[in-house]
Specification:
By secondary structure, the protein is an alpha+beta fold. It contains 4 helices and 3 strands, in the order βααββαα. Helices cover 56% and strands 13% of the residues. The termini are far apart. It comes from Micromonospora fluostatini.
């Protein structure tokens, strides 16, 4: 069974980005997360990560639709 909550390093591995990029995404509110424990360690719920990924697919699809390739871009 997969864990419900992920470490920021686990999220970074899933997204193939750096730990610091994930930390910035969490601190900016772009990626929902919680702080737990006495040391305030960040955790991202797996379901929230999947929602975030789906949101990014939708945003990318909209960007591609609004910015079609031109012949110059194809070169």
């Amino acid at each position: 069974m997969e864990p419900r909550f992920l470490l920021l390093s686990d999220v970074a591995a899933e997204l193939n980005v750096s730990d610091s990029q994930v930390y910035h995404m969490v601190r900016s509110g772009e990626l929902p997360a919680i702080k737990i424990g006495g040391r305030g360690q960040w955790r991202v719920e797996r379901a929230r990560l999947e929602e975030y990924i789906q949101l990014k697919y939708a945003e990318t699809a909209a960007w591609v639709r609004d910015n079609p390739l031109t012949e110059r871009d194809a070169e």
